[in-house]
Amino acid sequence: MYDRCVANKFINGKQCTIAWYVDDNILSHVETSVVDSIIDTIEGYFPGLVVERGKDLNFLGMEISFLTKGKLLLGLVQYITGMIEELEKALEPYGENLDRNYPHPAAKWLFTVKPDTGNLVVEKANNFRKFVAKLIWVMKRGRPDFEPTISFLSTRVKGPDKDDWHKFKRLIC
């Protein structure tokens, strides 16, 4: 199996890897001069690149820290913290907050759809869609325990109702 967004090539006898997703890229090679040369080539086609270097990087919302030789730390803390702060601001006009704690992300009634529940106002429905999409990303990269809840909520993005909103907030809290 391979990923079409990752390329590997041996340069000077060492593996060089580049991965890309839309406009985010990550490049690695043991020799700094090889990295510099590749960045210069890419910059020739796409001037104005923002280049981040070092042992601590951010790629697609993932924090990457290179520790000792052969050891790597991946995290999503900054992404999730930023998402929660953004959601808290979005909840302010409705007098809502994220102050509850639940033992797990879904209740036994997760897959129950109540036909008499009112639809969300447009702005809340838009926030529902945006944050469900962000949570799909989080689920795939670091929170597989969210999958049943996110899978259900993603089927509800076309016309989310107040009960869907409650299920969403339960997941976040």
Question: Can you walk me through this structure?
Answer:
- With 173 residues, this protein is of the alpha+beta class.
- It has two domains: 6-53, no CATH class; 77-172, no CATH class.
- Helices cover 39% and strands 18% of the residues.
- It contains five helices and six strands; from the N terminus they run βββαβββαααα.
- The strands form two sheets. Strands 1-2-3 form a three-stranded antiparallel β-sheet, with no helix packed on it. Strands 4-5-6 form a three-stranded antiparallel β-sheet.
- The radius of gyration is 21 Å and the shape is elongated.
- The protein starts with 5 loop residues before the first strand and ends with a helix.
End-to-end C-alpha gap = 36 Å
Largest sheet: 3 strands, antiparallel
| Total beta-strand segments | 6
Radius of gyration: 21 Å
Query: Which structural category do the helix and sheet elements fall into?
Result: alpha+beta
Helix content: 25-40%
The DSSP helix count reads 5
Characterize the overall form: elongated
Please give the oligomerization state of what you see. single chain
Q: Give the domain tally.
A: 2
The fraction of residues in strands falls at: 15-25%
Which consecutive residue ranges, at least 5 long each, have pLDDT under 50? none
Mean pLDDT: 90
Q: Give the strand order, joined by hyphens, for the main sheet.
A: 1-2-3
List keywords for this structure.
18% strand; elongated; alpha+beta; 6 strands; 173 residues; single chain; three-stranded antiparallel sheet; 39% helix
